[in-house]
Amino acid sequence: MALVAAACGNSGDSESSIDIFCEEARAFQQFQQTIELVLFDPAETQQFFVGSMERISRLAEIAPPTVRGDVETVRLGFEALDKSMAEAGYNVLLVPESALDNSGTEAAAGRIDDFLGSACRGDGDPIAGFGDDPFAPSVLSLDEIEDLQSAVDEDGDDLEQLVAVQLEEEFGLTGNEASCIVSGLDISLITSLAGGDPITAEATDRFVAVLETCGVDMNRLGGR
Question: 0.90 exceeded by the pTM?
């Protein structure tokens, strides 16, 4: 039973669309760090915003469906800020404080960061957040991820939902049953059980208890 985390890249020689998005999104983040060097020079600040608008507009064009709306939200935020900066001659000291408030795009930016953390990884990299976990599975290929992408709810935890989807498909569980099992067990334990690794009595008891709580008969899993 494979466990999944979104991955950048595929087995071909040419870059996939998500490879390109990952690369350009990382470059955009690095470019944003230069604001500290130019912020109090109006001419250089203007050039910074020109570069920012070019880059974020490009990202909005090539963003995967999972984060396309969030990238567009961030783009609109930059557009509004650029307008306010232009009206102040790109002198940050003259820009109204309200124009510098990024609370409207903060949530969208956070979801983009989460996506980059889980999707933009090379083959063999550990799942984001499980780097020290010996049971953490390697990422799947882009093609394998795309097969499951339509089943993922963008607003939830991608990793847990992808695991739940595969449990549902592999063992004929309902969506509620699969989600219940994933919620009751950590990813390491599910991976161990799936991979045939030695399981402690404590882990076995926990697994049985979760199945009982979720209303899943052990025989439904054992026959597959």
Answer: no
